[in-house]
Amino acid sequence: MRSSRSLLGRSIRRLDLRSRSVGSRRQGLSDGGGTVPTIGSHWILEMYDCPAEVIDDVGLVSAAIRGAAKAARSTLLHESAHSFEPQGVTALGLLAESHISVHTWPELGYAACDVLVVDPAADPEAACAHLASALESRHHHLQRIDRGRVPAPPRPTEPSRSARPRTSPPSDPVPVR
Q1: Which of 144, 153, 157, 162 lies 20 to 30 Å from 77, alpha-carbon distance?
Q2: Over the range 40-65, which residues count as b (16 or more CB within 10 Å of their CB) and which as e?
Q3: Which is nearest to 116 in space by CA: 160, 69, 49?
């Protein structure tokens, strides 16, 4: 667990699942022998103590997604939102770089947000900061997961002597009677 840090003046806790700092925008993970490429980064933002009237307003949640896309320097291609009865909102921003989604439970003051980007020039952390501010979260937890870690091709190795198939000399045919 990384130490707490402030996101727009609010306390958050971040879990770092990578071998490098969360703040780096460089694509790829260190494997000790170089950089292992990744396809993108998936940011999971858990928001608590959000005002019910804010996270139950489909217009405010949609506006938060538009603002998050702008903050991330991403291209919003399409947005879709649905208001549930008796409460709750799900909204999605389809980005040229991937997506931003928000799912809310106003009765719990909770919102679950995902920001997935595949462009290293995008700023998904800024998108998360915007969502936390726009949806007035008092407490949040931010986690980054690198997606699509592409393994390095296997290195050619010599098989050990014990792993080599044993060959036996051809046997004499057994006569059939």
Answers
A1: 144
A2: bbbbbbbbeebeeebbbbbebbbebb
A3: 69
Q: How many CB atoms lie within 10 A of CB 119?
A: 19
Give one DSSP letter per residue of 31-88, joined into a string: -SSSEEP-SEEEEEEEEES--HHHHT-HHHHHHHHHHHHHHTT--EEEEEEEE-SSS-
Q: Is 170 left (phi over 0), alpha (psi -120 to 50) or beta?
A: beta
pLDDT at 94 exceeding the cut of 80: yes
Q: How many Å apart are CA 38 and CA 67, to the nearest integer?
A: 26
Query: In the CATH hierarchy, which fold is given to the domain comprising 35-152?
Result: S-adenosylmethionine decarboxylase (3.60.90)
> In one letter, which amino acid is 87?
Q
Angle, alpha carbons 45-51-57 (nearest 5°): 85
pLDDT digits (tens, 9 = 90+) for 28-44: 444 455 566 889 999 99
Query: Tokens 């998050």 map to which residue?
Result: 68
Residue 37: the pLDDT is 80
